[in-house]
Amino acid sequence: MKTLITLNINGDAREIYIDARRSLLDILRDELALMGAHRGCDSGDCGACTVIVNGQPVTSCMMLAADWNGAEILTVEGMAKDGQLHPIQRALVEKGGIQCGFCTPGFVMNIKALLDENPKPTEAEARAWLAGNLCRCTGYAKIIEAVMSVAEESA
Amino acid sequence: MNSFDHFTPATLTEALSILAERNGNASIIAGGTDLLLRVKNHIVKPAAVLNVKRVPELRALSFDSNEGLRVGALTTLRDLTRSPLIRDCYPVLASAAGLMASEQIRSLATLGGNLCNASPSADLAPPLIALDAVACLVSLSSERQIPLAEFFTGPGRSVLQKGELLKEIIVPPPQGKTAYLKHSPRAFMDIAIVGAAVRIQQQGGKCQQARIVLGAVAPTPLRVRSGEESLEGQTLTSEVIRQAAKISAESCSPISDVRSAAWYRKRMVEVLVRRGIEATL
After folding, report:
1. Contact yes or no for A42 and B29 at CB 8 A
2. Could you say which of 3.40.50.620, 1.10.150.120, 3.30.750.200, 3.30.565.10 is the CATH number of the domain covering A87-153?
3. Mean of pLDDT over chain B
4. In this complex, do A20 and B49 lie within 8 Å of one another by their Cβ atoms?
5. Per residue in A25-43, pLDDT tens?
6. How confident is the model over B116-169, as pLDDT tens digits?
């Protein structure tokens, strides 16, 4: 059964015919060619597919796209502006918070959600918030350094 | 994944009509974090999926000092951790919700889903039962209330009948102090190997009313009445507290599984119940 839904993705309203079985992640990657959200575990554990929906960070692999008609979605593709990296992306690059890069888009989006709500987190708060993002290169120290440096800049 | 019909009702009546038409053979999706895992793993093959996220009647969140709290089934774990109402009047619910899963999953997962999936380790069940919460169940033909302590009938099973939905939970005005302690190997992103909720109401230096409710150590969340009775009417000395903790450990029937051995769960029940009581003093 195909359903017509509208998703507002990075500021653009997109009308899409979707199969009700497809996850939001499936639609982003396979229908809209937005490859930033990654498919890691496909079961909500790794956070690589994190996007921001209606202002909240979510694992897009655990959502039926059909359930989210009309949602406002921000993906990593919507973060850089005018060819300039978002400060969170720049901090991850500068602090060495990227190794293989597979987990990075998910981290970028969840860090954005964190700093939108709490611009000055403690390190413990940042670690707790990011518990649902796994980095298999285990580069957590640098990622947390990057978060704290962005929080610092926003002083 | 097999194909299924997908419905997004806009009202409770519409949702219940679809459920009734399908004779209950529709999977209800709210947060989806449990259901989609099971569908992806071919454990559940729904013929129809009923998305209840647009049903406004499932979104109650209000407090009255006589009636207590009404909290709708669609309330997300994130809502529970953020709501000033919950944080002020029922802080144990905010903290229990915050112990679950990740920020991303808490944005999706709902109170109703946590309860209706009826996992023995569901973190919201013990504190809600300790608070004497009542579940409101609705179908096209009836509306009924049942103590949450009687809602669960086994792993993944509850008293919900075909065609029935969990509408909301009613929690009486808070009496005494409630604590929920969760033990899991990892601090985050983990399922409880033991959960223990304790509520203690004291008057004149004596325990007037006690609740001890355990998670993950029986087929359903378990209220330990003998442990509660050992506290009621007593001054809560360390001896009395230890005795209640011991009774609690003896009353549960945990299994050994990938997360923990049964003997270890029993030992941890004793520790958590003791610490839980101490946390309410």
Report:
1. no
2. 1.10.150.120
3. 97
4. yes
5. 999 999 999 999 999 999 9
6. 999 999 999 999 999 999 999 999 999 999 999 999 999 999 999 999 999 999
The answer to whether the beta carbons of residues A20 and A1 sit under 8 Å apart is yes
What is the C-alpha to C-alpha distance for residues B226 and B230, in angstroms, rounded to an integer? 6
Domain ranges of chain A: 2-77, 87-153
- Cβ distance of A1 and B5 shorter than 8 Å: yes
Tell which A residues from 113 to 142 touch B, by Cβ distance under 8 Å. 113-114, 128-133
Same domain, B81 and B166: yes
B58-96, pLDDT tens digit by residue? 999 999 999 999 999 999 999 999 999 999 999 999 999
% residues pLDDT > 90 (chain A): 95
Angular region, A31: left φ>0, alpha ψ -120 to 50, beta rest: alpha
* Residue B16, domain extent: 5-51
- Maximum Cα interatomic distance, chain B, rounded to a whole number of Å: 62
Q: What is the pLDDT of residues A34-70, one digit of tens each?
A: 999 999 999 999 999 999 999 999 999 999 999 999 9
Q: Is A64 within 8 Å of chain B by CB? A: yes
- A62 contacts in B (CB within 8 Å)? 32-33, 36-37, 105, 108
- ipTM of the shown complex: 0.97
Which chain B residues are Cβ-neighbours of A43 within 8 angstroms? 37, 40
Residues B90 and B47 in one domain: no
Dist. CA B114–CA B128, nearest whole Å: 12
Crossing angle of the two packed helices A140-153 and A104-117, in degrees rounded to 10: 40
Which residue in B116, B117, B167 sits closest to B140, CA to CA? Answer: B167
- Residue A1 pLDDT > 90: no
Q: Which of B37, B49, B53 sits opposite A43 (nearest CB)?
A: B37
Put simply, the answer to whether B189 touches A110 (Cβ < 8 Å) is no
Question: Cα Rg for chain A, rounded, in angstroms?
Answer: 15
Among candidates B49, B107, B189 on the partner chain, residue whose Cβ is nearest the Cβ of A56: B107
Site from A19, A43, A62 to mutate, B interface, most B CB atoms within 10 angstroms: A62
Give domain A2-77's CATH number out of 3.90.180.10, 3.40.50.2300, 3.90.1570.10, 3.10.20.30. Answer: 3.10.20.30
Phi, psi of B180 (to 5 degrees): -130, 125
